[in-house]
Structures are given as structure tokens and as C-alpha cells.
Amino acid sequence: MSIQEHEQELADLAIYFQTAKFPAVPFKLNKYIVVHDPALLISGDISRIQMFKGNDTVRDSLFKHLRELKAICEETTSHE
Length: 80
What we know:
The chain is mainly α. The protein has one domain. The chain has helices at 3-19, 38-51, 56-78, and strands spanning 27-28, 34-35. The chain has a two-stranded antiparallel ribbon. Strand 1 (27-28) and strand 2 form a beta hairpin. The N and C termini lie far apart (34 Å).
């Protein structure tokens, strides 16, 4: 994926999370991360993605967190 594609996905995710419904906190993002403040996780990951945009490994790892969070939000919304 090119840097431009990553930047577009990041912009799309940022827009998505502005209106997303999150599960009650705390919740498990994955087997390593428990989310206590979704906004903090999102802003931190977005900042780090922008800072490390030349490093595919770091960027992809952080994108994975945001994608996992989006999937959880979509699952939460579908159960309402």
C-alpha cells in the first residue's frame, strides 16, 4: 500500500471514529490491549502513524489497532 493510500485510509478512519459507537469501557481491543479511553487510543495512534509514516512496520502495526477498533465498533452497532 502506498503512502497516499495509507493517508487516505487514515483520513477515512478519523472521520469514521467521529461518529462511531464504542462498547462500554474498558474493553479488549485484542489479546494485548485493553481500551479505557477510545479517543486517547485513536489520537495517539493517528499521531504516531503520521510521525512514522516512512516506517511500514510501525505504521502497519498502528493501522492494525485502528482497524481492530473499527471492527469492534461495527460489531457493537450491529448488535443494537
